Amino acid sequence: MSQINKLKILNDPIYGFITLPNTLLYDLIQHPYFQRLRRISQMGMSYLVYPGAHHTRFHHALGCMHIMQKAIEVLRFKGVLISKDEENALFIAILLHDIGHGPFSHAMEHSIVENVNHEAISLLFMEKLNEEFEGKLALAIQIFKGDYHRKFMLQLISSQLDMDRMDYLKRDSFYTGVAEGNINSDRLIQMMNVVDDVLVIEEKGIYSVEKFLMARRLMYWQAYLHKTSLVAELILTKVLKRAKELTQKGIILTCSKPLLFFMQNKVELYDFDSIVLNEFSQLDDYDIISALKNWQHN
């Protein structure tokens, strides 16, 4: 029986070829929790304004992992010691940083679950995967929570100039066609260094940082805070809240089993046991779209 080649090469429209650094990352990507991100849109309802913005969280997570590879390469070249285990943990943490997003990204956080942000759910998914993968994600979780002693590692995953922002600005700019959002992530990464355990940008990279901040500002003005997509997201939130209200009064609304579970139950962060997490892992954009198709005739 032939062994599966787990060291895949993927073609990305932004960076060209992306390589999977090891077999553990391949197995994590193959897991149903991660594959679900193929069915979660990166920009929520923005496709109503920008018809090209149909890219997914799956796309974005792979891009983040790719530029994390570049960042580690640059830092090592500049003499920053990063062990093989730390490198692997950084790949895992950035790959899974968005795994807790619900359908249409942010609309869920304010409607069918109560005051639960996606970062908290991402952590729950990572802890569950850590059990399944026999503790191989322990260091990644430590870094993700900010508990690891080398603080710059968390900055690579979550800060003002992290791999997450570098990928989504470039990717969202590409798929929306908003050229002002395009940034030179290669240049920014080349300018990175670590001083006193803090991630810094070399002085000659100051104009690239200014360009990055301006690009982010313009993407918010033109794309993320566009009035039409904001209103669409608000309407979606209101529809879901109303559907939940009616379901809890005993009115039967046709929808998928996972969506019905969240309609019938009040779910807060402390309610997220393995049963709730499993139901959540079955939820994606398609559940919401098919429910809306049914409810339009109600």
Structure characterization notes:
This protein is mostly helical. Helices cover 54% and strands 5% of the residues. The chain contains 14 helices and four strands. It has helices spanning 23-30, 32-35, 57-77, 84-95, 118-132, 138-145, 152-157, 163-176, 185-190, 206-224, 227-248, 257-264, 274-280, 285-295; strands at residues 9-12, 16-19, 192-195, 198-201. The strands form two sheets. It has a two-stranded antiparallel ribbon with strand order 1-2. A hairpin with a 3-residue loop joins strand 1 (9-12) and strand 2 (16-19). Helix 3 (57-77) runs antiparallel to helix 4 and helix 4 packs across helix 6. The longest helix is centred in the last third of the chain and has 22 residues, at 227-248. It starts with 8 loop residues before the first strand and ends with a helix. The mean pLDDT is 94.
Low-confidence runs of at least 5 consecutive residues: none
Strand order of the largest sheet: 1-2
Strand content: 5-15%
The chain-level mean pLDDT equals 94
The helix-strand sequence is: EEHHHHHHHHHEEHHHHH
Helix content range = 40-55%
Radius of gyration: 20 Å
Which structural class matches the secondary elements?
mainly alpha
Number of strands: 4
Number of helices: 14
Report how far the terminal alpha carbons are from each other.
53 Å
The coarse silhouette is globular
Report the major sheet.
2 strands, antiparallel
